[in-house]
Amino acid sequence: MRLIFIRHGDPDYKNDSLTKKGWKEAKLLSERVKKWNVTKFFVSPFGRAQATASLSLKKKKMEGETLEWLREFYIPVKDPVTGKDRLPWDFMPSYYSQDERFFDKDKWLSTPVMQSGPTEARYKEVSDGIDEVLLRYGFTRDGLIYKTDGSIENPNFNPQIEKYQLVTNKKVWDDRTLVFVCHLGAMFAAISHLINMSPFVLWHNFYVAPTSITVLNVEERERGKTAFRIERLGDTSHLYKGKEKISSSGYFTDLLDESK
Question: What is the distance, to the nearest Å, from the Cα of residue 224 to the centroid of all Cα atoms in its chain?
Fold first, then answer.
């Protein structure tokens, strides 16, 4: 099975919608999405995500399911330096780089700054949310992996290559595709749970542009035991094809060279 996370288009935060540029991005995105074989769309309740999804849903003649846990990760915590509220994905490198716990999947939530707000409860909501969706499709969380028995025939099966392990141990392939239209903070929280790493690393060290596409595939190398692998992160080829510049919304500084 494939999971595709799409970040909303260039945002009009004041009105929780899209800018003129954002609507252009969403239109180009829809031309790409219409070619996909989508099993189900899931959408954040926030307006900018709903607007982004609307054009693709119209092209596909499908309806999306709104999930509350896909909303942006707006959880205020206390900045120990300034004493003011700050979001978990908006800390300075000079601060978080001094505490290795932020980079540990089991320890980041126990840091005093994360404990100063309802971060743990919100992260659990996201983790439980993605697990609930996967359970609908036959994937059950079991420790750090997912168990399943719902596979179908794999047309791309090949025997093991001598001296290498580039082979599946089962002649099956689950071709279902779930699409999630949401936000940078929320999607990275969900992905961190799927691949068992601290979301702090994703929040602060990776960037995905508006309407970018991030793809995770489920890989079953042992019978009934699956793991997620990221195939693409922040793919914006539909914008390049449409000659639309990439938005730097979500960058802490305007680093993108939009002349390319």
Answer: 24
Residue position matching structure tokens 């126990």: 110
Strands (E), 16-95: 17-18, 40-43, 64-66, 77-78, 85-86
**pTM (predicted TM-score):** 0.90
Positions of the chain with pLDDT lower than 50, given as ranges: 155, 259-260
Residue with tokens 């697990």: 131
| Tokens 């392990």 sit on residue | 165
Strand (E) or helix (H) holding 139: none
Q: Are the CB atoms for 157 and 19 separated by under 8 Å?
A: no
What letter represents residue 22's amino acid? G
Give per-residue pLDDT as tens, 22-66.
999 999 999 999 999 999 999 999 999 999 999 999 999 999 999
Structure tokens at 15: 């009105």
**Angle, nearest 10°, between helix axes 184-195 and 119-136?**
70
Question: Which tokens hold the place of 134?
Answer: 């996967």
Q: How far apart are CA 8 and CA 184, in angstroms?
A: 8
Domain residue extents for the chain? 2-7+34-42+73-241
* Cβ count within 10 A of residue 80: 13
Q: Is the distance from CB of 22 to CB of 210 less than 8 angstroms?
A: yes
Q: Are 124 and 111 in contact (CB under 8 A)?
A: no
Q: Give the residue from 254, 217, 249 showing the smallest Cα distance to 52.
A: 249
φ and ψ of 147, to 5 deg: -95, 145
Answer yes or no: are the C-beta atoms of 200 and 106 closer than 8 Å.
no
Classify residue 102 by its DSSP letter: G
Alpha-carbon distance 89 to 86, whole Å? 8
